[in-house]
Every structure is written in structure tokens, then in C-alpha cells.
Amino acid sequence: MSVTEAPARLSLPVEGMTCAGCAGRVERALAAVPGVTAASVNLATRRALVEGEALDPAALRAAVAAAGYASPEAVTEVAVEGMHCAGCTGRVERALAALPGVHATSVNLATRRATLRHDPGAPDRPTIEEAIRKAGYAPMADAPPPAADVHAAAAPHVHHAAPPEAGEEAGLRRDTILAMALAAPLFLVEMSGHLFPALHHAVGGATWRWIALALATAALFGPGLRFHRIGWRALFRGAPEMNSLVALGTAAAWAYSAVVTVAPGLVPTDGRHVYFEAAAVIVALVLLGRWLEARSRGRASAAIRHLLDLQPPTARVERARGEEEIPAASLRLGDVFLLRPGERVPTDGTVLDGDSHLDESMVTGESIPVRKAAGDAVVGGTVNGAGALRVRATAVGSATVLARIVRLVEEAQGGKLPIQALADRVTRWFVPAVMAVAALTFLGWLWLGPNLPHALVAAVAVLIIACPCAMGLATPISVMVGTGRGAELGVLFRRGAALQSLQDVSVVALDKTGTLTEGRPALTDLVPAPGFTAEEVLPLVASAEARSEHPIAAAIRDAAARRGLPVPAVTDFATIPGGGVRATVTGHRVEVGTDRFLTSLGVDVAPLSAEAARLADAGRTPILAAVNGRLAAVLAVADPLKPTSAPALAALRQLGVGAAMVTGDNRRTAQAVAAPLGISEVVAEVRPEEKVDTLRRLRAGGRRVAFVGDGINDAPALAAADIGIAVGTGTDIAIESAEVVLMAGDLRGVATAVALSRATLRNIRQNLAWAFGYNVVLIPVAMAGLLSPVLAAAAMALSSVFVVGNALRLRGFRAPLMGTGAAP
């Protein structure tokens, strides 16, 4: 069952229920979902049965999650062989969507893959593959899942293996050459006969027709057999597609010509023309187009292959008996490996010894090498500079950064954009409509025209000129190239649909700490309240902040450590999101946080409010501390701006995108940071849960808002924004909540993402305009009898090549601040 359809009943697994009360809560939650008319939950089977007229599985699962339970969903990806147009993808999608337990399906023509979201274990892989076979296509067993272990791709026995597309390309190349060799004599003799009438009479006899019959038959049922094998089967199944058009057109031309040659008495004298050259040349030209298309698609998917090739095949590790070279796929957590100058890092790790600079451009898009010394993290696939390093492996296989990048790019490339919906609706009926038009053309010319051959030629031209392939490739091929280029520039689109959404963003809301600033604040001031000293307060505050992961907490702990002050143990520690922390330190109750937080606890902050205001006006972040309910001190930290923040915001303004700061910091500090950046819209003193409401206010007037953040407290805002953009140097939870990830932690990536989104959508519109315009213009020309089947075949073959070639222009996209700024 597809999300876009309207099923009457839906069964969902539910985990976490322990009693009838749980079942009742899930039932009530499901019943409240729009479109649900009835919901019942079976505690024994752990399943919910929902009835309604327009059920959305995603909304139902969200309702189950909101009730405190889980409705697990499995994702299966299968490579599908034999798809050639959008009609093919539609048939595979419908076949898979009809399987019990399937919630959503997506089939991508560019990547030749089907993705299913379904109940765990239902359907299983054999059932999915059988459904694909029944639809007339072949599942491929060698499709790596999205989370495939990248080390498997890097292992020596497969590292240099040809990708699946290589086999398809080689087969098309072989068949194209053979078809051209068979069609060339037919084409040359026919064309020469028109130029030299004497030659035409010389080769127009029965002997040449028998030779032409042999050559055309070899072409149609040799290299052209692929069209007939797939096309006729689809036609008889009542689901004709691109191959059906080619098979029907070439078979009609060949069969008529064969009858004229074998039994000329069956055909009137004025209709004894043969079209063997048309049938053979059509096969050759269509194969040529598919070969060129396959080559281009191979270039379009080069981004993932390039990422996989970054993993070196071997690694030199320390063993008890000395250094040993092993396959990189054999590395395990804790292994210590050695890096010589110029070598690639085999997996993620932490430097134990040595000093060097690493080229991390494959991760960040930045070409400036980064210094690495003991304690620093290194990423698998990056290139070591002139130094030598000794590194301990901290992540292997699918847990590495490189594997995550590959997984994100594959998922984005396999997704569908909303703009593709129109093409999908049209192509579902396109081929049957073309066949009907061809039949009407034949009957019309048979009634009005000069003779049977003229009617036949016009009908064959209509069949051959139509090209649903271009429609099916228009969107996914651009998404494939665009997301791949983004990965090369350090911008990862976790979902392909984010490409379309990002183009319309009018405001980018930014967190301050770690996003606009370095995220490494340092303690600059500590002003004690009367009755307290700095030496007394700082250890208490540092202890209270000992368990906090906030950058400000780290700055306070570092200051205490530099001064050599003891940090006592704490008890009863608690974090108040957007407020601060509280804990018990050596019997003292200590609260640290914003003035609003302390005021809510009944602490009088007035004695230090003027000092806090002065520090905030200076661009520092004031934090208040209370001990045993009394105001103890105001502390201030300063977090320097990232050097890339100002140029990044300038680039966004050039793109017509505004900026707003949304921060939990106090207003004075926020304004002091925003002013030099040219940010006029500042929302300060915002708790994490309030950031979501702030985003809703920013949407006023129909504005689309993107939110950029990097911390755990940013996760709700990242998920609630129209587009969530996570800084890749941030936490995993923030990255998982976002739709776009900036691997370099560089805000210039936001401008790059927006510009790439617009360039990709512009490219898609060009492809769709060509795909639809081509058919709208040339099908009537063919109906009018003004187009020969050979020219129709050439135009049809080139239409898909044009779409793929246009998409490949995105490979030349340049980031606005890293090149010419010109986008295709």
C-alpha cells in the first residue's frame, strides 16, 4: 500500500504495550488521526487495525510514537533490471505497493533501485523479488543496502570491481556495434538508391530484397531481441512500455516488408515498398541512445564510486610480532595503525603519536589541510600529508564517517521529489495513449492517404518518436548528480526532497553558539556578589557544571583547571534545558544559569544585573550563580565568531535569503554578536522548546524558514523547520534531526546548499520542459506523415541522452564563495 493511495484498512505492528491500558491509549491516539474512522488494538498480537478513507502510514506511526509506543518499520532496497522508462518504474511501484505490510514504495529510474518501507519481516526478500518478476522485471541480488559496510566496497577482492552499470553498458555497446554493422549496408544502399537512380534499379530486385530480409531479421532478432523479449511480454500483460513501442514499430515495418518479399502477390502493385532499412536502423539508433544514456548515467553516479574508492585497500597495523599489512576491511575497534606520508587513512581514529596535516576535502569540501597531533580525530579516506602518524581505530565499517556519507548520498539519490509527481501521472498513461494515437494515425491515413505503406510509415513514426524515457529520467538523474556534487562540496542532503524545499527558503534562522561562533567560549570575567570571593565561587560553579556538555560549562571547568582550583564531587545534578544546571556540591545547593532561571527559583538577581548588562553589551555571555539560594556571582564567557560567518551571511543576502538569530543567550549579548554580521532579526532568551514556536512566528507571511544548528537542544527546531540544516561538527542527534548536513561546520555551506538546490531544480525544470515539449511537438509531426521512422528513432534516442547530458552539467556547479559562483 502506497502512502499516496487511499486504502480502507491498515495493519500496524505496535511495540511496548504491556496491558489493556496501553492498548486503549494506542487506540485513542490512532482514532484521533485525521481520516481514521475506526481503530482497534490487539494486545496479544501486538498489532493495530485501522480503518479509514485516506490513511497515511507516516501519520499513524507518529501518533503511536506520540502515545509512547513504537511502530517499527523496515526498509528494504532491491536493484531492478529491465526498467527503461517512467512507465516501468510505475509498474514496479504498484506491484510492490500491493504486497501486504508495505507502507510506501519508491522506484528510481536513474539508480535502477526500488526502496520499500514495510513491517519488519513482512514481506520478506523472496516475496519482494517475486513481485518484481511478476511485474516483468528482474531483481538483482548484488544491490548493496543503503547502510552497506563501506569496508566491503574497499576490500581488495572487490575494490576495483566494475559497478553493476558497467555490465549493462558493455552489453549495450556490443549490441549497438552489431546492430550498426547489420543496418549499415541497408541504410547505405537505400540512401545511394535515392541519390543514384540507376543504382536504385540495380538493387531493387528480388535478390537484394532477400539479402535485406536476412540483414534486417538478424538485426531485429539478434541485438534487437531485448526489445521484443520485454516489450511483447509487457504488451500481452496489458502494461505496455517503452520497449513495447519499439517492438511494435519495428515488427510492423519488418513484417510488412517480409510479406512483400516472400509473397508479393498479397500486396497491391503500388504498395510493394519494403522498409527493412527502417526496421534495422531504428534498432541500431535506439540501442545507440541507450548505450550513450548508460554511459552518462555511469558518470552521474560517479560521486558514490569516488567516495568508495577513497577507502584504501590495506592498512599497516601494530601486532605483537611487529607491523603487519592487512585488508582495511579486517580492521577492528582498538587496532593501532600507522600512516606514512601521502597515505590515505583506512578508517576513523584518534591520533596517538605524531604530527602531520591531513587533506579533509573529501569530507568538508575545504582544500586547506588540517593539522593533526596526539588526541585529534582523523577520518577514514582523508589523505595524510608530510608527517607520520600512529592512530587508534575508533570506528570501523558502517560506523565510519565515510560510510555515513555514502549512506546519506544513496538515500538522497533514491528519493523522489514532489516535482516528479506530474511526470509520474503522465507517464502511467503515456504509452497506451501513444499506441492509441498510432492506431488512429494508421486508420486515418489508410482512409485518407495514398496507400497502405504511407499509413504504415506514419504509424511506425508515431510509435518510435514517443519517448517516455526522457520523462522518467528528468528528475532522478538531476537529483543523482546534484546530491553527488553536494557531497563533494561537503553538503549532504539526507533526503532528496530537501533539494526542492531549500530553493524556496526566504529566511535562515541560526543558532549562535557553535553555529555562528566557534563554540569554544572562554571565561573572561567573574564578579562575585558581596559576601563571596572568586576563589570560593569558581570551584562550586565548575563542579556544578562538571556533568554538563554545554560549551559554556566547558569554559568554566577549563578556567578552574588553569587556576589549579579543586573541583569537588557533585550530587543531585540536574539540567534545566534553556535555563541552566543545579547540583549539590559539598553540602551547598548551587544553581547556575540565566537570570530568568535564577529568578524563577526566587533568587534576587538585582545586585548584579547592571554588571551582567555591561558584560552583555560587550558581546560576552553573562551567567549567574547562586549558592544556597543567594546570588553568588556573575560570570562571563566570550565565544569568538567563526571567520566564515560574515561572508556566509553576505552570500545568503546575495541569494535573496534573509537571516535571523535564534538563541537562548540574553538579548544584549545576542545583539552584540548579530550587529557586525548584519543580522537585524534577533530572537534571544529562547528555551529549546520555545525555538519551535519562534520558527512558527518567523513563518508569518508565508515565509519558508530553514534552521541551522548543531546541539542537542537544537534537535526540536531542526525537525520543526521547513528545512533543518545541521552543522556536521555537532552532535549525532542534531544531524539525525536535520535534512541537510554541513560536514565542514562552515556556514558557507548554507549558501552552497541553497545555490545548489536552485541550480538542481532549474536543471530539472529544463529536463521536464524538454521531455514534455519534445513529445508534444514531434508526435503531431509524425501523425502528419512528415517524419520518417529513421529520423524518429534518431530523435527518440537523443532525447534521453539530452536529459542525462543536461543533468551532468551540475557536476560543474561551483560553490558561491569557492569559485566563480556560476551555476549551470
Oligomer: single chain
Helix residue percentage: 40-55%
Number of strands: 29
Supply the helix-strand structural class.
alpha+beta
Assign an overall shape.
Answer: elongated
Q: Supply the number of structural domains.
A: 4
State the strand order across the main sheet: 17-29-28-27-18-25-26
Low confidence ranges: 1-7, 142-162, 818-824
* Main β-sheet description: 7 strands, mixed
Report a brief summary of the structure.
With 824 residues, the chain is of the alpha+beta class. The protein is built from 32 helices and 29 strands.
What would your notes on this structure say?
- The structure is a single chain.
- With 824 residues, this protein is of the alpha+beta class.
- The chain contains 32 helices and 29 strands.
- Strands 17-29-28-27-18-25-26 form a seven-stranded mixed beta sheet, with helices on both faces. A six-stranded antiparallel beta sheet has the order 9-8-10-16-11-14, with no helix packed on it.
- The model is unreliable at 1-7, 142-162 and 818-824 (pLDDT under 50).
